[in-house]
Amino acid sequence: MTSNVSRTVFPLAAAILAAASGGSAAWAGTGIWTPVGPGVGDVTAIVTHAGSPGVVWIGLAAGGVYESMDQGAAWSWMGRPLGGSGVSALAADPGAAAGLWAATQDGFFHTTNGGASWSQVSDASYAAALGGNSPNVMTASGGVLFIEANDLEGEGGGRLLASSDGGASWLVAYDAAQGHWLRAMGAAASGAGGVYIAVVGSEFEAVKLLESVDGGRSWTTSAGPWDQSNGSGISQIAVSPSAVYVATDEDTLLRSTDGGATWETVLGGGGELSYVVALTADPRAPHTLWVADEGNDLWITRDDGATWRRRQLPDPPPYTASLLAVDPEAHALYIAYASLPGYGGTPGSLWRSRDGGASWQAMLLTPLDFTPPARVSWRAGDQGQMAMSVGGQAYLSANGGRTWSWLPVPFDVRDLDLDPSDPNRLIAASDYAVALSKDGGRTWSYAAYTEYLETLVRADRRTLFASGCGIQRSADRGKTWRIVLPCRWRDAKTLRYVQKIEIDAVHPESVYALTFLVVEGFLIPTHGVLAGRPSILWRSDDGGVTWKKAAEGLRAFALDPAGSRLYAIRESTLLRSDDGGAHWQTVAAAPPGLNELLADPTGPAAFFATDGDGMLRSRDGGSTWQRFNRSAVPKSYQYGSIFSLVLSPEDPHDLYAICDGAILHFAFPQAP
Fold first, then answer.
1. CA distances from 229 to 179, 222, 224 (A)
2. How far is it, in rounded angstroms, from Cα 84 to Cα 669?
3. Alpha carbon of 477 to those of 52, 481, 482: distances in Å?
4. In what order do the strands lie in the sheet containing 375-379?
5. pTM (2 decimals)?
6. How confident is the model at residue 40 (pLDDT cuts 50, 70, 90)?
7. What is the Cα–Cα distance from 337 to 44, expressed in whole angstroms?
8. How far apart are CA 237 and CA 228, in angstroms?
9. 578 vs 9, which has greater pLDDT?
10. What is the CA radius of gyration of the chain?
11. Distances from the Cα of 601 to the Cαs of 267, 347, 651, in angstroms?
């Protein structure tokens, strides 16, 4: 009997798939590394557009943009056209219905089609104006783009950048002194009321609130309770056509209707308001303001603060809320939460309300900064249908990796399998169980339990393997499972960690598994070599039903896709076996520290390998090895090791590198 995990928690998975045509992942370009799908990082920007009701875009810290055409019910991953650095800020371009601007550390970009394609519009003035600072927040006001940029790691001064030509050229509209930062910025889209910034320094200095009504060319100081050394700080600023609002560190919200000459308290001061974490003026309703505080409350006024309605925010830790956006035409409200790795592994999330904050629904969860290595798989016979798991979240692609949709699964996902016979049948691996869905992800039931689970490997339309600590096998499309290689070895305190399973393409009844022996209590790594740990290569001649020892002391192995020949790494030697591992002969010396080996099907005796510094390739039988240039990898992914390598099952020129919380794609040029 299986136990039900979830009952109609989320919409049918098929309903959230982005409509797209099939195709291979070669769209990413040949000869370069391209990040595929969502990477780690929090939501850094939320944008709605008056010309596109119901459409919402978000930017992620690890780079790239998600687009939803239906108020967040379905999300399409728009790839990473913005280079390797993260998307720091987004702003709507009122001149195009699907026009957006995007600010990153490396450049300023523009799209007129919602992110399907991007162009870099900035010249050298953008980098010069940043001065090494990081862009944080952007707004478009009265035809002028403003970007708040701070030195987040050093003692440099914060800057406000301005552009009056759509981002083509930039100047520094305000340059704070060294050791001072811009803490908040606010401006109305229409330009009415000017632009406001809060400048902070040390705890002994007064906070300054500055206003400009001429696009940042000149500034005046606005007096208030923040202009003395022991006064209130400023956490948020919002500007509407009728008023300016300032949230202070003293849990009060102030309003000025005369351009900052005088201020009055419109909320707080009596203990009802907590520290304000997000403040948004409705862009199409001049008297409406939305306020989110860390007490898990949402405050709404539709009469410039004269009266307020109090609502509850969603369930995540309230003090992680960071962004608030509203789409009045679609009657939708969005709020984003930052991830908390130390808070039980809470991922970042995006929530939507369509009833003014009375109820909320999770629209997207983003992976944590520290995650298990990602996984990628394909539906057999259809390379366009792909699945990926990153940081416990599951994503689907209907077009070979060009766009991705989040699959809401009510548990952490380590790996995801797509049934080749039934598009609604999904199999997921969580930490300690295999789960099965027959309705596209609407409901899930546990099909098997294990001490530790990491990967799923499909042998044919009916047979699958689940591995992590030991191996389980299913011969009925994931409905039932049987242990075929126990997790515990001999003394019951030694565990068999399965690093890799590979199936002979010519003789599919032959299956190989490389295991490392670890002591109970030792943190089982989610990939990579276990240097110094005993290893055993196991072989099955009956499709994985029974197993016998084939070799010991190997660091990595690979099967020749053209036949049943085995290759392996033992210490710093490349070995070959023509009889299933019974006998081995030396092929060549290998670079030290290799921990993954993959046979290259595009050439005889060609290999890929990984070590702690990246990836290597040999095209002469292992006699010489060339290291791939890591500088070609976007900077957001130049961390950690490449844990494993995967070739597309239908196009051997498409290589995928599985990293810590990310997947990189490399398309090799094909001969004409």
1. 16, 15, 12
2. 22
3. 43, 9, 13
4. 375-379, 382-390, 393-397, 405-407
5. 0.75
6. low
7. 10
8. 19
9. 578
10. 27
11. 67, 38, 10
Residues 496-499: contacts with CB under 8 Å, at least 24 apart: 496/469, 496/470, 496/536, 497/452, 497/468, 497/469, 497/524, 497/525, 497/530, 498/454, 498/455, 498/467, 498/468, 498/469, 498/470, 498/471, 499/527, 499/528, 499/529, 499/530, 499/556
Q: Which residue has the tokens 């995990």?
A: 5
pLDDT tens-digit map of 570-620: 989 999 999 999 999 999 999 988 888 999 888 778 999 988 777 889 999
Mean pLDDT along residues 411-423: 92
Mean pLDDT, the chain, rounded, equals 82
Average pLDDT over residues 50-72: 81
Q: Name, in order, each residue with C-beta under 8 angstroms of 94's C-beta and a sequence gap of 6 or more.
A: 50, 51, 140, 189
pLDDT digits (tens, 9 = 90+) for 194-244: 899 999 886 656 788 999 999 999 999 988 888 664 556 899 999 988 899
Q: Among residues 86, 87, 82, 89, which one has the least CA distance to residue 137? A: 89
With the CA atoms of 316, 318, 320 and 321 taken in that order, what torsion angle do they form, in degrees rounded to the nearest 10?
Answer: 100
Q: What is the mean predicted confidence (pLDDT) over 495-519?
A: 92
Q: Which tokens belong to 132?
A: 């090494």
Q: Spell out the SS3 assignment of 428-450.
A: EECCCEEEEECCCCCCEEEEEEC
HSE of 501, CA atoms in CB hemisphere, 13 A: 26
CA distances (Å), 397 to each of 318, 388, 551, in order? Answer: 32, 8, 38
In whole angstroms, give the CA distance from residue 111 to residue 109: 7
Q: What is the DSSP string of 111-176?
A: ESSTTSS-EE---HHHHHHHTTPEEEEEEEETTEEEEEEE-SSSSPPPEEEEESSTTSS-EEEEEP
Instruction: Report how far Cα 36 is from the mean position of its chain's Cα atoms.
Output: 10
Q: Which residues pair with 187 in a beta bridge?
A: 195
Type of residue found at 550: A
The H-assigned helical ranges of 345-484 are none
Rounded alpha-carbon distances, angstroms, from residue 551 to 472, 572, 575, 593, 599: 21, 16, 11, 19, 19
Handedness of CA 518, 645, 467, 536 (dihedral sign): negative
Amino acid type, 222: S
Residue 541 parent element (H or E): none
From first CA to last CA, the distance across the chain in angstroms is 56
- Tokens describing residue 618: 């040999």
**Model confidence over 232-250: pLDDT tens digits?**
689 999 998 889 999 998 8
Please state, in angstroms and as integers, the Cα–Cα distance from residue 224 to each residue in 160, 213, 265, 277, following that order: 22, 19, 11, 20
Residues in the chain: 672
Kindly state the DSSP code that residue 251 receives in the 8-state scheme. S
* Per-residue model confidence as pLDDT tens digits over 421-473: 999 999 999 988 999 999 988 899 999 998 888 899 999 999 999 999 999 99
| Closest C-alpha among 286, 281, 261 to residue 324 | 281
- 85, pLDDT greater than 70: no
Q: Which residue has the higher pLDDT, 492 or 107?
A: 107
**Angle value at C-alpha 175, between 217 and 189, nearest 5 degrees:** 50
Which tokens in the block code for residue 426? 């999904």
Residue pair 458/467 in contact (Cβ under 8 Å)? The answer is no
DSSP 65-115: EEEESSTTSS-EE---TT-SS-EEEEEEETTSTTEEEEEESS-EEEESSTT
> Which pair of tokens denotes residue 251?
């849990």
Give the whole-angstrom CA distance, residue 481 versus residue 666: 35
